[in-house]
Amino acid sequence: MIQQEKTYYLSAFRSITIGVILLLVGIGLFVATYDADASFGKNLLHYLVDFSDVFNFFVSLILLPFKLGFIIVGIVVLRTAGKVERAKITAKGLYYKEMPKGNKYDKMTLDLGPLIYTSFGQISNIWFHKNWFYGNSLEIEVNNQRIKLITLNVLSTKEKQEIFDVIQNHIKNRKTYARRKKR
Questions:
Q1: Residue 180 CB contacts under 8 Å (≥ 6 apart), including other chains
Q2: In a 3-state reduction of DSSP, which class is residue 130?
């Protein structure tokens, strides 16, 4: 049995890389439209909304959410680097993020949702698929349904193996206890 809980986080390196790329794209859009002869304020205004003619005005209004979105999302991703929970194991069960069913916007906000709880008693089997091409993945069986833990694919192989071992031990202990009880 596990004595204390352990939490598994999304790698800070991945979050920092994604955040920096988003910031560079947002800043790159500003630098691409930068006019060296104009003041910083005029360049900033031109970056946000271009009033030079009607066509540029509408195009800049359409692109404004994207320009600001790259910078804002990049900052948010950098601020939350290393703090995004993907799984947690306690003495009672497994908490994990489940890939939401629905449109792409629901999937983009996956890390904003709560962890899904599954007690060790509900898990009847677990598989650790090792694949060189697709990467290693975990799959559990709950109520005769197989659930692929897709969101845990970002964890290291060592962390996935640790989760597998803990759940496998709980399953073996439960089966051993059931056999002893029948005697």
A1: none
A2: coil
Total-model pTM:
0.72
The Cα angle at residue 140 between residues 139 and 143, in degrees rounded to 5:
145
Residues present in the chain in total: 183
Q: How far apart are CA 45 and CA 64, in angstroms?
A: 11
Please state, in angstroms and rounded to a whole number, the distance separating the CA atoms of residues 123 and 8: 19
- From residue 137, give the alpha-carbon distance in Å to each of 17, 74, 87, 127, 129: 23, 28, 14, 8, 5
pLDDT, tens digit (0-9, with 9 covering 90-100), for 117-153 = 999 889 999 999 988 888 889 999 998 899 898 888 8
Cα 20 versus chain centre, distance: 16
CA separation for the pair 164, 17 (Å, rounded): 28
